[in-house]
Design goal:
The complex is a heterodimer of chains A (about 120) and B (about 110).
Chain A: E1 5-7, E2 10-13, E3 19-24, E4 31-37, E5 44-50, E6 53-56, E7 65-68, E8 75-79, E9 88-95, E10 108-109, E11 113-117
Parallel strand pairs in A: 2-11
Antiparallel strand pairs in A: 1-3, 3-8, 4-5, 4-9, 5-6, 7-8, 9-10, 9-11
Chain B: E1 4-7, E2 10-14, E3 19-25, E4 32-38, E5 44-51, E6 56-59, E7 62-67, E8 72-77, E9 86-93, E10 99-101, E11 105-110
Parallel strand pairs in B: 2-11
Antiparallel strand pairs in B: 1-3, 3-8, 4-5, 4-9, 6-7, 7-8, 9-10, 9-11
The chains are: A mainly beta (about 120), B mainly beta (about 110).
């Protein structure tokens, strides 16, 4: 079984540019989460999809961040325009929903996308 | 609001030593608790998962315990090896699946 795949692994952009991060969850996982870790801080929740619907986006820092999960499969996280403080590692995780089977709410993380804004 | 604290922030031990990493959380209404390992520049690897109804889980040299009422979990590593050097993260999950992470404990095992 393929794990959670994130692309790109590392992106270096200039302040003001746009970056789009992609996450392919484990096939069949309805839950998809975005987290990020900025330098020196803990990993923080950004948002949660259940299939294509945003269940909880309380962690999104501001309206420069836009997440989508069209069709309930892969998800994208766009940062536009990027600022210096957006630098960090963006993690995606997926899990089964309760009722989908054994292992519900057990998070499997991707390797992360490292974003550097210059 | 759930808050997760990990102590110590960093730990350095000689090879072969047994050690305990601590995780505490403020809201005991949890669904499960996961311990992860993160190597530099890499993603998160799930080590152990404890459901809220469980008291402990074991995998090889690792043993994780959970005391929900007191808001504590420990990760015990037996006979530590240099390859165990990494950052260990505790994540507390709610019923909705949203995780709150601690800052992590950076472990260095010296040969």
């Amino acid at each position: 079984e393929a794990g959670v795949t994130q692309f790109p692994s590392h992106s270096v952009i200039e302040k003001g540019q746009t970056v789009t991060l992609r996450c392919d969850p484990i096939s069949g996982h309805d839950n998809l989460y975005w987290y990020r870790r900025v330098m020196g801080k803990e990993i923080k929740f950004l948002l949660h999809f259940v299939k294509e619907s945003k269940q909880d986006e309380s962690g999104m820092p501001n309206n420069r961040f836009l997440a989508e999960r069209t069709g309930g499969t892969y998800s994208t996280l766009k940062v536009q325009p990027a600022e210096l403080e957006d630098s960090g590692v963006y993690f995606c995780a997926s899990s089964l929903r309760p009722g989908q089977g054994f292992g519900a709410n057990v998070l499997t993380f991707g390797a992360g996308s490292r974003l550097t804004v210059l | 609001k759930q808050e997760v604290t990990q102590i110590p922030a960093a730990l350095s031990v000689p090879e072969g030593e047994n050690l305990v990493l601590n995780c505490s959380f403020t809201d005991s209404a949890i669904y499960n608790l996961q311990w992860f390992r993160q190597d530099p520049g890499k993603g998160l690897t799930s080590l152990l998962l404890i459901q809220s109804s469980q008291r402990e889980q074991t995998s090889g040299r690792l043993n994780a315990s959970l005391d929900k009422s007191s808001g504590r979990s420990t990760l015990y590593i037996a006979a530590s090896q240099p390859g165990d050097s990494a950052t260990y993260l505790c994540a507390v999950n709610t019923n909705a699946g949203k995780s709150t992470f601690g800052d992590g404990t950076t472990l260095t095992v010296k040969p």
